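Handoff note, outgoing to incoming analyst
You'll be picking up this chain. Sequence as last confirmed:
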Amino acid sequence: MSSQVKAYGVYDHLINQIVDNYYVHILNLIRPFLFFNHKLCRLISFHRLVKRTSKSGKPYIRKRVFDEKMLETKNVKEILGLMRKYKVFDINMTCNCYTNPSIAAKISREKCTYLTNLNGYQIYERFNCNKCLDKKCKRNVLLHHSYLYIDLDLKIEEAQLNDLYIKIREIEDDLKIKTIIKISSHQGLHLLLPLSTVKINQNITSPLERTLYQYSFGIAMKKIIEERLNIVRVDPWNFIDLNQSVRTPFSLHYEYLIPSIPLTDENFEENIRKIKEIISEASYKLKISLARDLVTSNEWNFKVEHDNTKFIKNCLENLKHEAIKKVLRIKIIKRKQKAPNWFRRIVEKKVKISKEDTQKMKEYFKSLGKSDTEAEHIIRKIIEIKDIL
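Most recent structure output, in case you need it:
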């Protein structure tokens, strides 16, 4: 964390201006996404644009900024203090809504890894909530307040967000689904599907359960979108992330300083035009002012009045086997059998191998499936090495 703070951020000199002239005015819009029943309900982090230390590649790189102390945030105004402290402004939140985000922050490869021994093999898997003994973590996700998420990026500069928005809505109409579509950047969109629009019996569930829905929905949509729109790339890298994150609505993009606003059939043309104005504006002061005016001068609706149940459940039914394998990172590893103690004593002792030792080793190697010839060859090699030593 400390190395991230010390790295030179491109917008370090603008942080106070961004906080005072933008975020102070839109905090009430962000609050419902980060707080539930007056408590922080998601993991929050930030993206920060910093200079590369190496000369290869792009001169700037995006860095994630996260500190467990952020989980102590009591109200939305304290987020302003986090921005000033860490010199950041692009707020990201988990798609999962949690009863306790601090518990979710402890999900890790080290903690959530399982090995099952079976007939000479080991089944290796991660993040299997069904095997976990931590009941609080297994019952931590408020499903009906969580989202499924897809990140869309245009492959070519000539492509237009206007056309992309229209075509994505056409695809959704064909599939009989409806999502929240919001600005990601001048070349991308985010799709958020509220799980409140899916009729699922349980309200509180495990991180694994939501991730299975996420993977099956995301992969199904990726195939459909990329087949119909070859100018679009769907980023699947975080479909298997139990703490999958997305830019918080109305947060400013870490590089372009444009707000992540929702688009509708009524407002998309006008709002995309205003986004282009912000990007083309050379003055940072005016960029921030234009972003604030765009957000504060409109009324925004993040509710989806549509039943997405059939499509989401079909995705899970068709892809659940693949989803489980991918999310759990399942691998089957051949387990190396441990040599018995008597064998190690024969090999390690400094005296010559006796005829009795040779016969015992031969029987041992044959028990492992070796032929007489293979067993005798291995024993000769062992004797040669012992003679050298």
